[in-house]
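Notes for week 9. Today we move from apo structures to complexes. The key idea is that a small molecule is not decoration. When we ask for a structure prediction with zinc ion present, the ligand SMILES becomes part of the input, just like the chain. The input block below holds both the sequence and the ligand string. Read it once before you look at the output, and try to guess where the molecule might sit.
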Amino acid sequence: MTKEPLPRRSFLRLAGTLAVSGSLGPTLRGAKAQMSKVERLKAALRGERVDRVPFTCWHHFGLEKKPGENHAEATIAFYRKCDPDLLKVMSDFPYPPPEGLEKLSQPEDWQRIEPLKNPFPEQIKALRLIAKELKGQALFVETIFHSWNVAEKLSSKKDLVQLKENDPKLFKKVLRAISESQANHVRLALDAGAAGVFLAVSAADEFVTDAQDYLKMGRESDLMILDAVRDKELNILHVHGKKPHWDTLVTYPVQVINYSVHGTGLGLTGARTKFTGTLMGGLNEEKIATQSTDELARDIQAAVAAMQKRRFILSPGCSVPNDISPEVLLGLRELARKG
Ligand SMILES: [Zn+2]
């Protein structure tokens, strides 16, 4: 099987085949009448039958130095191209460091972290524009990188570990302050129309810290963010990493868990034994950009078969490469529509 990215010719061939099978329509195949994106997603969350498995996909746009309008425009263009059932809005605007500081390293720098009312104003602007464009045709969730990760970006992984070891009290105070800001942001995001959050947790992983340490040092700051969305029915926990602390993470109050099947080596049926909510994943984020159509179709079929179309959202296990070709996205869109 070729490992080359979906060439234009084979994509056109694929699109042609699908156009024929698609014309039969789900009703004639004996399934339920075609659902809207919102109906399909809500049915998946409730564990009900779906006409086909909902899917989504995302990547970064690298527009964090530009105004929110540019981010909204890129997001909507991506939405139109990929046509997902759920739009996961990327959020790359940096958390503002205390005035006059570029990177935090000294204890006195960290002391200056205070909760902010609106830490990502350009992102809120973008969310409002996105909501206006979507007109309720699809639900969208706001991406939140957990506060541990935000603190790493404000300094460095190494400096943050040092802070945790040298002054655990200050470390926890910093994460709490950032989480308070993030909870404020989440409330503004919901107000702008987001259906919930996509909380990316990267430090609850054996390669970053052990489970006991995470329980003591990180969990509280994650739960502060989730508490701000406790009334919403579409909160997704993104489990980032190859050896995640499953026992901790499955207790988080979310309806959906997204993780990397291929990165963790844990299959969907294995994940189902750990978490009874909706699972989201199945696609190989590291290979998708260069997979052949057959390989991608096999991944989709395996995931859909494993989940029996119940409580499942087809997606990559993490962000796909930013330079993924439009042909691959279109191919994914067509194949996912058969799921
Ligand atoms: Zn990830």
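Confidence is low (pLDDT under 50) at residues 1-31.
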